[in-house]
Design goal:
Length: 335
Amino acid sequence: MTRKVTIRDLAEAAGVSVTTVSQILNGKGERFSLDTRRRVHQLQEEMGYVPDFNARNLIMKSAQTIGVLVPNLGNPFFSMFIRGVQETSRERHFIPLIFGANHDEKLESYYLEELIKRAVDGLIIASASITAEAIDNILKKNGIPYLLIDQNGGPSVDRVQINDEQGGQLAADHLLALGHEKIAVVMPDDPTQNLQIRLAGFKHRLAEHHVDLPENAIVHSAMTKLGGYQATAAVLAQHPTAVFAINDETALGLMRGLHEQGLSVPNDISVLGYDDIDLDEYVVPKLTTIHQPVVTMGQQATGLLINRIKDQRQAAQLVDLPVDLRERESTAHLK
């Protein structure tokens, strides 16, 4: 049976002490000669030595690991977000541990507790099935830095903030410019703060143009493709000429439902989404949407969290990211 190469094997081959090898491999070997450092790195490659991460953690007192908790790994929005997390984690030499809780509060709590037991250095939480206060209580007690995403609020010190009010206004501007005044909205029963802000911006801009959005025009459904599909009948009961879906997944499911009812998008009814996930370019018709820089959100969130891990006493960090309209084929002028 092949034996794993140890740091002692590497030190003996290099003719130096274990401490010298450890310091060189951990980037603290400046006091050693360039020849020694080169020899250690060359032998590491030749011998295939991989450092024992658990031993390194004991020395460095850091696992250089962050936990990432999202509600649904199958949602393209969170897939794009995680891509950004992975890119910055790799650049900053951290490893992300990623979990999807499937909107299950008990599962979220379980993952949080397990990540704490495994001594992660920090957490990015993009899920809202449990309250921000509960998250804060669990994490503050254990002194773990964290950052809440896609909520535009809550007790986390650092924030990546999207201008959801402007996003709602852009959505309303677009539909109004196309002549639509009979509009329905599809959103969840218990929206997070960022969704409430999004809807408020949408309603405010409609009101500025003397267009009413009655309560019954707001159809409540899960923020998934299935949720959008299941909302079809309730949407059609309002006889709208246009629909603003609070996210793209909802919009895509709704378009499938409308198609099955024999309606053409956008000839019979316009559909507008929010997020700009990559699927929008590959459906027929292509989805008009409000663009959020989702990958950048993941990158920025990870950068802020790692900054906080390295210095928990620094001032609060805030990053504002823009939104804009991506006009495609699912919206059209009112006929």
